[in-house]
Amino acid sequence: MKRFLFVCVENSCRSQLAEAFARIYGGDDVEAYSAGSRPSGIVNPKAIESMREIGYDLSTHKSKSLDELPDVKWDFVATMGCGDECPFIRAARREDWGIPDPKDMSAEDFRRVRDQIAEKVKRILDT
Fold this sequence. Notes:
By secondary structure, the protein is α/β, with parallel strands linked by helices. The protein has one domain: Rossmann fold. Helix content is 31%, strand content 17%. The protein is built from three helices and four strands. Strands 2-1-3-4 form a four-stranded parallel β-sheet, covered by helices on one side. The chain is globular, with a radius of gyration of 13 Å. The model has no long low-confidence stretch (mean pLDDT 92).
């Protein structure tokens, strides 16, 4: 089983979406987590709604900090927009995904970001 971690600032949108897609597409082969460098404490309602549209219940997810994660070497880590706020995380492979924070976007633009994240997760799972 591979361990994937997705990190953004608030752990309310991008990293939550990525964790969900890793669970959807990775199935039993992937242990997926997400966290924030400064977690907001909530999952953005737009993120919950955008995933509900494709049949996934993101309302069961929680916004969490990096301190709440297991202390392991990750197989893959993706950071999204946290820049210098993302601490070093031990990983076999890491990428910074330059994905804009969709929290203040229209529903249509939010869906585009959601779909972009889905494609990136699929690509990582295929490598």
